[in-house]
Structures are given as C-alpha cells and as structure tokens.
Amino acid sequence: MQNKKYSLKKLPPISPRPQSIKFARWLALLAILMVLSTVTTRLLGQSIESHILWWLAIGGGIALWIIIFGSYLLVWLAGNIIANGKDNQRERWLLYETQKSRRALQILAAEYLTCHSPDIYHPTPLEAIMANTGARRAQDDRKGTGGVNHSQITSQASDKPYEVMCHTINHLMSSIIPQLEKLDTKKTIKIALNISSSVSIREVKHEITHAFNEAELTHLVEFIAGEGVAVINQWLNERFTDDALLLVIALKIDPPVVKDSAEAGVALLFGNRMTQHTLHPAALLHRPDRDMDNDLAACLKQAADNVPLESDVVQHLWIVGVTNEQYLSTFSVLKAFPVEAVETENVITPDISIGHAGAAAPWLAIAAAFQAATLTHRPQMIITGDTSTDDMWSMAVSPVTPPHERDT
C-alpha cells in the first residue's frame, strides 16, 4: 500500500477473488468422467472379470475427478488466501490513513491586523471581512508611488516599512504572549515565518525575539522552515506527538508588487491535542487537503471527511489567496458537499474586498475563521491558494465545546 497514486480520495481496489465453486458443474464433470472411464475400461479390459471391470470403471473416473477437483480447490483456496491477505492489508491501510487524516491542531490564540479600523457599521475587523466590505482604494504606496489600488495597515504617513512591521508584531504578540505565560516554561515554541515584505526576515526575527524578551518569557524558541498550509500537514505528519507548540507568524508589508495587494499581519498559536492540556482551545484546525488532481470538489469533500462533517452544517466558505483562474474554478463547488448550504453572501473573499495578502492570506483566513467559528458555533470551510506553488488547499476550522457546556 505504499503506492502514492492511492489516497483516501482514490482508494486502492478490493483484491480480485476466484469465482465461487459451481458444484453442479463439478458433479456433471464427475458423471462424464465415470462414463468415459467405463467405456475406456470395457474397450481395454474384455478379459477381466466383470466385477473387477466395474470397480476399475467407477474408481478410475472418481480418482481422475478427485485429482482435477483437488488441484482446482488448492488453486481456489490459494487465490482466496492471497486476496484475504491483500484486503486485510488494505483495511489496515485505510484505518491508518483515516486516523492520520483525523489529526487536528488546537487553535490556542489568533490575532491579525489588516487595513480595517472599527467604524459604526463594522465594530470589529471580523465583521468587516465577513461582510466583504471593499477596502482597496487608489492611494500612495510606501515608496511614494501614487494612485496604486491596494490596502494598507493603518499607520502614520511618515512610518517606514520597518516601523510598520514592529508595530504589527507588537500588536500580534499582545494576544499570543498572555497565552504563552500560562504554559510551562519548559515548553518549546517553534516559530514558522511566512513573510512577503521589503522588511528582511532577519529584522522580523529580531523583533519577535525582542517581544519575547520584553515579556520575560523563558521558553525555548526555535525558528523552523515551512511555507504555506503545507506547514500544517508536515507538522501533523511528523510532530503530532511533540510537546512543542507551533507559532505561525505571517506578514505582508510593503510587498514588491503593490497593485491589488493587501498588507496584513497574522499570528496563530497551535497546540497538539495529545500533549497540550493546559490551555483549552476554542477551535480546531483540521488536516488540510491538497488538490493535486485538479478536482476541487473531491479536495473539499476530503477536508470535510477529515473532521468529519455532516451535511448542511457549514454556513460560511472562505476563499483566499487564489488566482483569477482558481477563483473561477471555485464556482463549481459552491453547491457541493460540505458547502451546499452556504448562501452567496456567506462566501467570504478577502482577495476581492481588501486585496491579496500573499503569504499571509491562508493564515488570515484561518485566524478570521477561528473567530467566526467561536462566535457562530459552526464549522468554517476554507479554500486557499499557495503562493509557493500553484496548488489549492481545502480545510475546516471547527469550534470546540467548552467543558462547562458539554454536560448541559
């Protein structure tokens, strides 16, 4: 079952088995053999006493039938034994892959910063994002070029990209640090950075380290490699029993291509369900599924099966980080499981409303969907592109019932 062409979306076939034994045919063969044996014996054995002749006739036919039927039966049994072995291996593979697909990460904290500021219509950024409120506009970019259609993180006109980055990191860490302070100091925090900015990764790392030092956190901090949603799959495959926590920090500030872009900063703190028991998660991020076969409907269905979800429970679909061609392809799944109950106004498209957030796009959707799941108590489905490849991913964020409500 190591063949990579098989997956839970394309199951290995059940092993072929020999056809069931047709006993009527074998009895007919026995009768034919006995007739042939009798005729042959009489032709060759005229001098043999009659009772011996009949014993030879009957015994010869039966003996030949036993040899033929016994050989067939051995082959038939061997075929079934081989098929049973392969099917047992298939069942073990299915059980392992299903258990593997059901792995999920606890979302322990989430914070993000975009161009949205509270107003009388949308008191929170989440409400503005979920309303698909248009925020892109023609304005000067951070290099001074005028009339570029994009959105920016709110800042002073004189702020340089580095200063915007520092402000953003401090804002993000203000929600993450209080959670880290509740954890054992022996916990390791592994940080994955997804950055598309004129500010260097070295400067971002320095500011994050500074924020940890300012908060007097003594946890061991380790920066790890990984881009896009593949980081989650890799973690669930290799580190799902680790005692460490995963902190994803994604930034898009002063990007190389400004037109139709969105500046954004996102921080997400994840824990493993098997090892993290101090903090109670409000939601879970379930294993993402990658569309490698150009079949988005199957990808979306597998992401729902990874939860698993029932029909008609999803009311919001987030589509982020996709190209124009990929966005058009999402139309084919809008009435497919598990998003068949999602109304048009509940299809949330930050790429259109605020602009493309680049490396931060999938993490922005996860963080906002996390907040939406905790407010609505309904699972959220996300379709996202991948800036490092041209793949599309589907994933689910589901709310977790608080302990005091489970028995009520």
**What structural class do the secondary elements suggest?**
alpha/beta
Q: β content, as a range?
A: 15-25%
Quaternary form: single chain
Helix run count: 10
Number of strands: 13
Helix content: 25-40%
Mean pLDDT: 89
**How do the helices and strands follow one another from N- to C-terminus?**
HHEHEEHEHEHEEEEHEHEHHEE
Keywords: Membrane, Transmembrane, Transmembrane helix
Protein name: Type VI secretion protein
Key descriptive features of the protein:
408 residues; single chain; 10 helices; alpha/beta; 13 strands; 11-stranded mixed sheet; two-stranded antiparallel sheet
Task: Describe this structure as you would to a colleague.
The protein is of the alpha/beta class and 408 residues long. It contains ten helices and 13 strands. Strands 1, 4, 5, 6, 7, 8, 9, 10, 11, 12 and 13 form an eleven-stranded mixed β-sheet that branches. The chain has a two-stranded antiparallel sheet with strand order 2-3. β12 and β13 (392-399) form a beta hairpin. α1 runs antiparallel to α2 (50-101). The protein is elongated. The two termini are 44 Å apart. The model has no long low-confidence stretch (mean pLDDT 89).
In terms of topology, how is this protein built?
Layout: H1 23-44, H2 50-101, E1 104-113, H3 125-130, E2 137-139, E3 148-150, H4 161-180, E4 188-197, H5 201-214, E5 220-224, H6 230-238, E6 245-253, E7 264-272, E8 283-286, E9 289-291, H7 296-305, E10 317-320, H8 324-329, E11 347-348, H9 350-353, H10 361-376, E12 380-385, E13 392-399
Parallel strand pairs: 4-5, 4-6, 10-11, 10-12
Antiparallel strand pairs: 1-7, 1-8, 2-3, 6-7, 8-13, 9-13, 12-13
Helix pairs in contact: 1-2, 4-5
Protein name: Type VI secretion protein
Organism: Pantoea sp. BJ2
Transmembrane segments: 21-40, 52-83
